[in-house]
Amino acid sequence: MQNDLKEYLASQIATDSIVEICRSMNEIGPYISSLSFADPLTVGRLMSYVTVQSRREAYRQFHIPKKSGGVRVITAPEGELKDILTTLAFIFSELYIPTPNAMAFTWGRSVADNARAHVGHHYVLNLDLKDFFTSITAMDVERGLNRIGISPLVSRDLASICTYPVCENHRIRNVLPQGSPASPILSNICAMTLDRRLEGLARRFHLTYTRYADDMTFSSNHSVYHDDGDFMRELYRIISECGFTVNPSKTRLQKRGARQEVTGLNVGDRVNVSRLYVKTLRVIIHHIATNDHPTKHDVNVAKGKLNYLRMVKGKHDSTYITLLVKLKKAVAGKKLGD
Q: What is the pLDDT of residues 18-52, one digit of tens each?
């Protein structure tokens, strides 16, 4: 989005009442979603999604496999609600000032920046928050929206609109759905207290702390990571008090001399992708080069992997440049299949 358009849209944000929110969404929505100038959103239509039944009917659920095994449940809004949540995500992102530790879902920060903070440290501790999105309730969202300047009554209604009702032990819990365009920015807003408390803990023990969505990393040149030590006890206490739970099967302490990884990237002497990543990319490019009619899918996969390599290693990196040239030669003059 062009900076001048972004600045104009940001200037249209007003949050003191649901009427103002609706007006702001009608100004912003047509530029970033399918909300229409010709059929503006009404307060009545917006407020209809406060009810449990309306929200349930506006979502579809499907499953995708996890790398670690099992499946992940995706709860995705459709139709008008998807456009509403896309527009609200823009509004929230303009009001939210990210903590220094939040590396995901934040403009100008990336998975490579997250890893770069931990390069060259003797100890790297990775922890994963279990059921990150669905641990965040409508009450958490309401409090978070209050913190970024939205009035209490508006925050309450928006918290309902942005959450999905699930039934647990014969009770309805409204939680952040994994699959909503508003959930990423809301998860960062709701984790602000967690980030600030863990940053304070990290400073106390002279550590570096970052969080990429549900993936938290601490690193240092000294060890404070004993299970019964002060740091680990305090860490688990803070996480619990903030409403989250650590997934113990994904907790890893990596020491200097062995492979150290942060959000899928090596962080030994510098941030780098794995050898397997580069090998896989070479195989894909070779397949394209030796196939008379490579598919658009294969070429798009190769381009995506190359873009990621460029983000991590830089546009002047020799490996990136070599593979970029090979891909261009591989597709030159060929008609791509579907």
A: 999 999 999 999 999 999 999 999 999 999 999 99
Per-residue pLDDT of 167-193, as tens digits, reads 877 788 999 999 999 999 999 999 999
Give the model confidence (pLDDT) of 75-121 as tens digits: 999 999 999 999 999 999 999 999 999 999 998 899 999 999 999 99
CA proximity to 322, closest of 309, 332, 308: 309
Cα separation of 240 and 237, whole Å? 5
Rounded to two decimals, the pTM is 0.90
Q: Alpha-carbon torsion 223, 226, 228, 234, what sign?
A: positive
